[in-house]
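ugh ok fine here u go
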Amino acid sequence: MGVTSGRNQPPGDAPARERLSTPLLTAHVVLILFSTVAMTTFLAGTPPAWLQTESSQRALRIGWTFSGPTYVVLGALAALVHATGRLGWRRALALLAAGALISLAAELTGTSTGLPFGPYSYTPLLGWRVAGLVPFPIPLSWFYMVYCSLAILGRLLVPRDDLRTRLAWAASGGLTLTAWDVSMDPAMSFATAHWLWHTRGFFYGMPLLNWFGWWLTGSIVAFAMVSIARPTRIAALVSPSPLPLWLYAINGVFPIAICLRHQLWWAAILGAAAMAVPIGLAIAAPRGGWAMNRKLRPREGTSWSASTASVD
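structure:
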């Protein structure tokens, strides 16, 4: 593990590449907000007269088919382009591959065996399903939400690259990710029918095992990611950017609003509180977080200063 002054900086053409992430995030936000308004107003009850015409029904079918997958793809592209600008395209693609493939393996196992989430299955509402089981947007959402979770942790946790620290980051990343599911699962399986539980769980039909499965899978994905882009690099290069925080926060809007519309009060309250904790702590953290405000005691023979050093 070598340390070289001045290397913990984005690639030279990073600003140009990273700028592309802003319109992708904007499109992602617009589509989420539109879907939220639609699903909590004219699509939430008896369709109004204007929605029952043939042309409106055709547009509605197209919307149902493409809106969900499209906003997930936009979120994944925003995170990927952002990671490319901050970490370089090789690491960005490796993060995408690790996040998508590990989560896809967990979801395929889950829909086939019931482990580690509990017995469930996806409906066609989220688009084409891999092996007829897992909609293709699902592993993409795991990728960008774990990426955002790690970016948040870079403002809160000590960034070191030893194994113990990476395990701590991974476990915390899994927990930060699982906060998202507190409102999302009731919204997507109880209020709507994007997936179905084949058991009678205590939390709006969801078994407690699901949250353990989310934490476990999220932690494994997070550990793979911090092995590709080490905590010092994430804290110095990714965490200072507001984009991952915005991306994480906006993805809580849709499920919380759906829960409120369908009077799933506990799901809305607990889901909002669960996501508000990491968001609030990240906003309140000193500018740049640990990476830019502390000189860390070296471990495993590595010295590191956020302003000048890099671990590669």
